[in-house]
Design goal:
The protein has helices spanning about 5-10, 30-45, 60-65, 75-80, 110-120, 140-145, 160-180, 185-195, 205-215, 215-225, 240-255, 270-280, 290-305, 305-315, 325-330, and strands spanning about 15-20, 50-55, 85-90, 95-100, 130-135, 150-155, 230-235, 265-270. With about 325 residues, the chain is an alpha/beta fold. Bound molecules: adenosine-5'-triphosphate and magnesium ion (MG). Magnesium ion binds near residues 30, 31, 54 and 132.
Length: about 325
């Protein structure tokens, strides 16, 4: 049951499931995936709000066929309005949009603005909050990756996309580990361990160095990694070789970053998708063929884990074993 009393609403974290969609590189399909995934999740009965967090280069509203949103993130950033008041209805049943901003300078929101935005995102009503992230690995992006319960990493089989997706996740994992250190002392211990290990590629090496200094912090970080709730979406794939390339990257993520990252959707390079962008109508509203099937599967996988337990286990380690949630993701 959702809390209905306004007091309960303000003090409790809303149980809405937070899903970040990122990928490091620009133009790989993050917004196409976000918009269609929002529709696929809503079709399963959830109320979805998708937020355009591509600060400075917002265009998610265009994908939904909304030419000029009347309200959006800029209103929240400029004025003392509630984030929930800046939503726009879309033509997709059950999907609301918080349109982004392309105003000059907005990409550099202050730390204080970011904190306020994150706290409002946590309190948004609804079942699922999807965050469509921009390209790059600035802290403004990585902190939203950390905030989320689940992460969708979109990549294409092109070398530049693979490189960026990997460095995006690596930066995100390092940032999350940093944020898991609670005290000045823990942050110092972590910084010493990071300085000591030469190979920052391998999280296992860092965890070993950390365990020698602070077993408590090492355990917390290992739990964080095991429950990092990440899934890979391979986009614009053309053939079996492309599928293999995406598979190799998913394995590399698992082996080096120590986070389970099963492939949950493989979307073919398709004229239907290109046309849907130009027509400003998400392809899932038209049925969508094979790509729609993949996105529906992804939607189901993302709705499978119990997020309350995931939040608990990510911080404290699971009574039920750390691989529990990722394996649910893998098979859902
Ligand atoms: N599976 C696909 N098949 C064909 N074209 C695609 C596919 N996925 C995405 N595209 C094309 O790639 C373009 C970029 O997609 P999208 O805007 O979703 O990327 P993005 O990662 O959000 O980029 P940015 O970082 O700039 O926000 C789309 O306009 C679309 O034409
Ligand atoms: Mg985008």
């Amino acid at each position: 049951m959702r809390p209905t009393h306004p007091f309960t609403m303000t003090i409790q974290r809303n149980p809405g499931r937070l899903i970040a969609v990122g990928g490091g590189k620009g133009g790989v399909g993050k917004s196409v995936v976000s918009s269609n995934l929002a529709i696929a999740i809503a079709a399963l009965g959830a109320k979805v709000t998708v937020i355009d967090l591509d600060l400075g280069a917002a265009n998610l509203h265009t994908l939904f066929g909304i030419a000029r949103p009347e309200v959006g993130l800029q209103d929240f950033l400029d004025r003392e309005v509630e984030l929930a008041e800046t939503t726009t209805r879309t033509s997709a049943y059950g999907v609301s949009l918080i349109a982004g901003s392309s105003q000059v300078g907005v990409a550099n929101i202050s730390h204080k603005q970011k904190q306020r935005l994150m706290s409002h995102i946590r309190q948004l009503p609804g079942d699922v909050i999807l965050l469509d992230l921009g390209a790059g690995t600035t802290f403004n992006t990585l902190d939203f990756v950390d905030l989320a319960d689940l992460r969708v990493v979109v990549m294409t089989p092109q070398m530049t996309s693979l490189q960026n997706a990997y460095s995006f996740l690596k930066a995100a994992v390092h940032r999350s580990v940093q944020l898991a250190a609670d005290t000045g002392e823990e942050r110092e211990v972590l910084a010493t361990a990071v300085a000591q290990v030469k190979d920052t590629q391998r999280m296992g090496t860092l965890m070993a160095a950390l365990a020698a200094r602070s077993p408590v912090l090492a355990r917390r970080c290992e739990s964080l990694l095991a429950h990092y709730g990440t899934v890979v979406v391979g986009n614009q794939v053309r053939d079996d070789r492309d599928v293999q390339i995406i598979g190799n990257m998913a394995r590399m993520i698992r082996d080096f970053l120590q986070i389970p990252a099963p492939i949950q959707a493989l979307i073919r390079d398709s004229a239907v998708i290109r046309d849907s962008v130009n027509a400003r109508r998400p392809m899932l509203l038209e049925g969508g063929g094979a790509a729609a099937t993949e996105l529906r599967r992804l939607a189901q996988a993302l709705l499978a884990p119990d997020v309350a337990r995931l939040r608990h286990d990510r911080r404290h380690g699971g009574m039920t074993g750390t691989l529990d949630v990722p394996s649910m993701l893998a098979t859902a």
